Amino acid sequence: MAFSLGRFGRPGALVRSDAIQRFLAFGALILIIVFFSIASPEFRQFDNAIGILIATAVVGVLALGETFVIITAGIDLSIGTVMTLSAVMTGVVVTNLGMPLPVGILAGIGTGGVVGLGNGLLVARLKLPPFIATLGTLNVARGLALVISGLAPIYFTSSPEFNNAFMGSLLGSIIPGFDIPNIVLVMFGAAIVAALVLGKTILGRYTYALGSNEEAARLSGVNVDAWKAGVYALGGLFAGLGGVMIAARVNSAQPSLGFGYELEAISAVVIGGTSLSGGEGSILGTVIGAFIISTLTNGLRIMSVPQEWQTVVTGVVVIFAVYLDILRRREQL
Predict the structure, then answer these.
(1) Can you give the CATH number for the domain in which 96 is found?
(2) Less Cβ crowding at N or C end of the chain, within 10 Å?
(3) The whole model's pTM is what?
């Protein structure tokens, strides 16, 4: 494949296709909001809007890291349990070891980065299929979270100073006159950082290059293994941040929480237009996809749709998004 936007830039046809997919996803989000606003007055309440933002925050941050991985034509199934392990490490460092809050947060994020790097080495160095490598890591992280926590939740109420600072910093609001929790601002801040990395750095360029034509990148002198490991490590850092955020949200480190979050994150990435075939995707599309997932779930719950049918609807939306990606790929051939 030739790169028409520079040595490792994104192909022009893919850029146009990606923009169309983002437009369609944004249009779908608006239609969902309008539909539920008409169908249920409760959906239009400000408190419900805040609830949607909070629900989007954690999944959105996980999806940011997943976007990089999927653009390389990979997959990371472990981000949900890595998030859990990171939350547990935050709780252990602060509550059990009595370390300061910043140390606990860094421990959580760092744990995610280390596990992500491990995923990258398994895929890049040992040449394991991403699906198998990260499926194994999913179980390893899940087991370690249970072992380290002693099979019991770690409640931050046992450390009042940490509890007040932690909850206040992430669930409080720094914007005067608005009740938007800081955890939502963290998600948007992380999205801005991710967009800059993907669009303005060499890591971002090589991320697209690996997904578009890995062999061409290798022949051009790119250290494919190192950059691929770096992409998975970055995904792990976002999972670690998600762990810190969910720990603040539930005011504890729950060792059994997190399983299934990876599916929501991957769904958000795919709905937002990132191709499972690699080489195409955007952070903006992922954020829109995350809002589609949380808004759809929230609206169905308000309308008293059973949980099992909510899952069915979400699955249908993901299948439709993947089918659109297939159609777009066919048009480009």
Answers:
(1) 1.10.3470
(2) C
(3) 0.90
